[in-house]
Design goal:
Elements: E1 5-11, H1 20-29, E2 32-38, H2 40-45, H3 50-57, E3 79-85, H4 87-95, H5 101-111, E4 116-120, H6 124-127, H7 130-141, E5 145-146, H8 168-182
Pfam families: Flavoprotein (PF02441)
Protein name: Flavoprotein domain-containing protein
GO molecular function, one term: catalytic activity
């Protein structure tokens, strides 16, 4: 990638969200200018780290819409990665239900033709719900690379998660590919 590519890194409230600082550093080493956006629950989970995360990215951590007329605190996204993507955020995004600021941004980003990648983080009980496969199929049909199943996140049994094994490298690899495909 030539120059700085702006990555919006969005996370919802699943245990891998606690890796945010490490993922941001890894993304920065790959040449990304990272802007961190969180769902309300993820922001609550990371409340003690928000100031450090803002310093690390050089941008405010965002969780809600700015007021109309206020300047945007972030540069325009070249690519968006939404991971971990919870059951709620996955289904809301696929159904166009902008229940949180982060889901609203990715829903609108589709129409703006901003490349996006997503990696769900759902346990096997949630994954058994028929809406999960429908939502993954909808996002894939929209051209979003969804890292789920073979070659992505594979659900675990409830309470048997291994957040330290969440395959973050796959997300950043996919973000690099998406950014490269859309570069002028």
């Amino acid at each position: 990638m030539g120059g700085m590519t702006t990555l919006y890194f969005f996370a919802s409230a699943a245990p891998p969200a606690f890796d945010a600082a490490r993922v941001i550093r890894d993304a920065q080493e790959r040449g990304f200018d990272v802007c961190l956006g969180l769902t309300p629950s993820a922001a609550e989970w990371l409340a003690d780290d928000l100031a450090e995360l803002a310093t690390l990215t050089g941008h405010p951590v965002r969780t809600r819409y700015k007021r109309p007329g206020d300047p945007d605190a972030w540069p325009r996204a070249d690519v968006i990665a939404f991971a971990p993507l919870t059951f709620n955020s996955l289904n809301a995004w696929a159904q166009g239900l902008t229940t949180s600021w982060a889901v609203g941004v990715v829903a609108e980003a589709f129409g703006k033709k901003i490349p996006m990648v997503a990696m769900p983080c759902v346990n096997a009980a949630f994954a058994a719900h028929p809406q999960v496969d429908r939502s993954v199929a909808v996002l894939r049909a929209m051209g979003i690379e969804v890292l789920y199943g073979d070659g992505g996140f594979v659900p675990n049994q409830p309470g048997q998660g291994r957040p330290g094994e969440y395959p973050w490298g796959l997300v950043l690899d996919a973000a690099e590919r998406a950014a490269a495909r859309s570069a002028p």
